[in-house]
Each structure stands twice: as structure tokens, then as C-alpha cells.
Write a structure and sequence with these properties.
This protein has 429 residues and is α+β, with helices and mostly antiparallel strands. It folds into two domains: 246 residues, Collagenase (Catalytic Domain), CATH 3.40.390; 130 residues, Protein Transport Mog1p, Chain A, CATH 3.40.1000.10. The protein contains eight helices and 26 strands. Strand 20 and strand 21 form a beta hairpin. Helix 4 crosses helix 5. The radius of gyration is 24 Å and the shape is globular.
């Protein structure tokens, strides 16, 4: 995998404990995902759909990953929020946070999911718990666990996914799915959380209520990534939206993969034939257009775009174009230092492209190779083009990388300096 902070560092091993006593090891992979997609049709992407699946035992005794979600006629899903009772010891003399602030934070989280996913997902807050399908409890106490403080939990395991019978086809089973309760803890050892922090925790737990299994997103920028404590991601991502839209595009009970059926992985996934480019991708935010390789998955990032030969969580090569503050020399020094710290072989050079200097650094490790070009863009800004592949495949992918690099052109007119600017958090978004 790439070292890109955009996509995070992934762990593919999925230890599945089914309804039986045995455990089996399963690794999420793009080949099973593509096989499933071929059966059900195109799905909203990018997504981490395999991680949303539930490990269940089918009526024939096979262990499988199954899509579990609320049926369409369950919406609008009625939810009740139990306001917290805040003890004086936690409230403090200067605290202005009220129980209503935390209830509003939960309402905002439900609204964010509804807006992102779209139909059939809809929510309606009710005033009495007996009228609700789901209850959200806000507790002003500290919930400790072996590895730290737990700030949210979905209870009622009987309400989670259960296979109740065979379906109309071998690729479907009948399920029951109706989780009824989630608890959000609004305090940690430092005191009361802010409503903003509680909103982030609520976003994560609502994702579980909607059907994301006990697994989590493998991508560090997603709300459903397994972050401990109050360091939850505060905004739903493109992957969060694609995953839930994909889940609700499926029939409840769709069988994603039988764990005993190991699909053979092709000997090589590098593309055959000459490199071809897709139609242009335009970035109005940063004032450039680029053409990525044909048939690669293209994903919007906070400061640009990335294309991968595979899917975002399992790929052989990637190339991204991002806008960042700084100078060519500053980024070159930063990237060289990072490569040296990893123990990589580091080489750098400066060359001209259309009469303009381009700073390049190539870092090669035992498994991955990465080539980064830094291009002067507009005053105080550079474009950073990062190409990554397995070390043994890097030379093979060079024609694709070079064609993408040569396809980058400015948009006219350039983006307004008064508008929203890209993130300035660094090169690797």
C-alpha cells in the first residue's frame, strides 16, 4: 500500500467469529469485491463496503459476509434522544453547556447522515421513547474499557443482524435487523466533552445503527474509522457516503462472500497493453485539470485528486495531484527527510517541463517506490504529483505516471484568491 495519509495504513486481516464456535481468517480484497459487484451491478464508489458486512452463518451452515440494513419501509426511522443529567461536579462554575446542547448535537449528526446518504434513509425525532425505533442515551459519566475510554456503544445485540432463513436465491438470505439502542458518553477524564465532540461520536454510532457491522472503515479520514476517545473524525467523508449509499442500494440479506470460497488472485494485476488515459478531471478549487489512467478509480481528496489501480483500500499503484502551500525547495527537503527516516534509498533531481523547473524526489524501500514531482503553481502554492507502486512494478507503471504528469494543465481563469483555499496541513493530505 501507499504511504499516503489520504488513504491511511490498512490492515486487511478480518478475523470472523460466526455463530458457530470456530474462527476463520479472511482478508478483504478487491477481487471478491469486484466479483460481488459483477453480481449485483455497479455500486456507489469509492466505498469500504466489505467492512460494513456482517459475519453470519447461513442456513446451509456456511460462514459468510452478509449485507444487513433497515428495510426501506422502516424509514423515516423514528429516534428518541434521552437528554443527559449533568452533575454539578462535571458542569463546573464556568461551563455553559446544557443538556439541550447535546441533544442538538445528536440531531445534527442524524441530519448529516440523511443529507449524505439520501433515500431511503430518513430520520424523524420523536418526543417519547415508546414511539421510537431507536433510542439514543446521553450519559454524563465516564465509561472505561481495557484500552481506554469508550465514548459510544451500540447495544442490543439481538437487534443486530440475524439470518432467519434462506432467501429467494443462493445469493440472498432472509434477515432480521433492528438495533434499538446506542449510548453516547459525554464525559471523559478531563471533564465534559463539547457538543461538537459528541456530534462526532454520534456520527460514528449512527453509522453502526444504519448497518455498518462491528468492523470499521480501514481509511483514517472516515467517520467510521476506529478512533479511540474524543479524537473522532468530525465530518462524513466521500467514502462514508459511498459505503452507506452502496449498502442501501443492495437488497437486505445480500451475500457478499462465502468465507470458505477463496477466489484465486490473478498472478499480476498490472495493466496489459499501452497506457491509456481517461477523460479529464477538473479541479475548480485549485485551478487545474488532469487526465488519470483509464479504468483506475478516481477519488476526490481535500486538496486534489487521487487515482488508484484497484480500489482505495487495495491497489497496486496510485498517482495523486494535490495543491499545497509552500515552495519547491521546502517540499523537496521535507520529503527527502521523511524518506531517509524510513530508511529508503533517496534520489532527487531538478528538470524543466515546458520551460518551468520541476523538482523530483524518488524514494525506494523494500516494498514500495514513490516518485514525487513538485511544480510551481501560483504565488505561495505548488502542485505535488505523487506516484506510488510496488518496487518491482514501478518501472512498469512509469508510462502511466508520465502521461498523467504531462496531462496537467491550468484552468482559465485561475481560482479566486478570495474563495475557499486548499488545506495547508502539508503535502500528504
Amino acid at each position: 500500500m501507499s504511504r499516503l495519509a489520504t488513504l491511511g495504513t490498512l490492515a486487511f486481516l478480518f478475523v470472523v467469529a460466526g455463530c458457530g464456535n470456530e474462527e476463520s481468517d479472511y482478508r478483504h480484497n478487491r477481487f471478491d469485491y469486484w466479483s460481488f459487484r459483477a453480481r449485483v451491478g455497479n455500486l456507489p464508489e469509492p466505498n469500504y463496503l466489505p467492512w460494513a458486512m456482517h459475519a453470519e452463518t447461513l442456513p446451509d451452515g456456511a460462514e459468510a459476509l452478509v449485507a444487513c440494513r433497515w428495510p426501506d419501509d422502516a424509514f423515516p426511522l423514528r429516534y428518541f434522544v434521552q437528554a443527559p443529567e449533568i452533575p454539578e461536579a462535571l458542569a463546573g462554575e464556568w461551563t455553559r453547556r446544557t443538556p439541550a446542547d447535546y441533544v442538538t448535537a445528536v440531531e445534527e449528526a442524524f441530519a448529516a447522515w440523511q443529507k449524505l446518504v439520501g433515500r431511503p434513509v430518513r430520520f424523524k425525532r420523536v418526543e417519547r421513547p415508546e414511539d421510537a425505533q431507536v433510542e439514543i442515551r446521553l450519559a454524563a459519566q465516564i465509561q472505561a474499557a481495557e484500552e481506554g475510554v469508550v465514548l459510544g456503544v451500540v447495544r442490543d445485540e439481538q437487534g443486530r443482524c440475524r439470518v432467519t432463513g434462506a432467501g429467494p436465491t443462493p445469493d440472498r438470505v432472509e434477515i432480521a435487523f433492528a438495533p434499538r439502542e446506542a449510548t453516547l458518553y459525554i464525559a471523559d477524564p478531563e471533564g465534559l466533552l463539547t457538543p461538537r465532540q459528541v456530534r462526532a461520536v454520534a456520527l460514528h454510532e449512527i453509522g453502526h445503527l444504519l448497518g455498518v457491522s462491528g468492523q470499521h472503515s480501514p481509511l483514517a479520514g472516515d467517520v467510521m474509522y476506529p478512533v479511540a476517545g474524543d479524537r473522532r473524525i468530525e465530518a462524513l467523508s466521500e467514502h462514508d457516503g459511498g459505503s452507506l449509499r452502496a449498502l442501501y442500494a443492495l437488497e437486505p440479506g445480500s451475500v457478499y462472500a462465502r468465507l470458505a470460497d477463496r477466489h484465486a488472485v490473478p498472478l499480476s494485476e498490472v495493466r496489459r497493453g499501452p497506457p491509456k488515459l481517461a477523460p479529464e478531471t477538473r479541479d475548480e478549487r485549485n485551478g487545474f485539470r488532469v487526465r488519470f489512467p483509464k479504468d483506475w478509480q478516481v477519488i476526490r481528496t481535500p486538496s486534489g485528486w487521487i487515482a488508484v489501480d484497484g480500489v482505495s483500500w487495495d491497489y497496486d499503484a496510485s498517482i495523486q495531484v494535490v495543491a499545497a502551500r509552500g515552495t519547491q525547495g521546502g517540499h523537496l527537503s521535507l520529503l527527502a527527510g521523511q524518506g531517509i527516516a524510513r530508511g529508503d534509498d533517496v534520489r532527487s533531481e531538478v528538470f524543466e517541463l515546458d520551460g518551468e523547473p520541476v523538482a523530483r524526489i524518488v524514494t525506494t524501500g523494500s516494498e514500495r517506490a514513490e516518485e514525487t514531482d513538485v511544480i510551481g503553481w501560483r504565488e505561495g502554492w505548488v502542485l505535488v504529483v505523487i506516484a506510488d507502486a510496488r518496487a518491482q512494478d514501478f518501472n512498469f507503471y512509469q508510462p502511466w505516471f508520465q502521461r498523467v504528469m504531462l496531462s496537467i494543465e491550468p484552468l482559465e481563469p485561475p481560482p479566486s484568491q478570495d474563495g475557499a483555499e486548499p488545506s495547508s496541513s502539508g503535502v500528504l493530505e
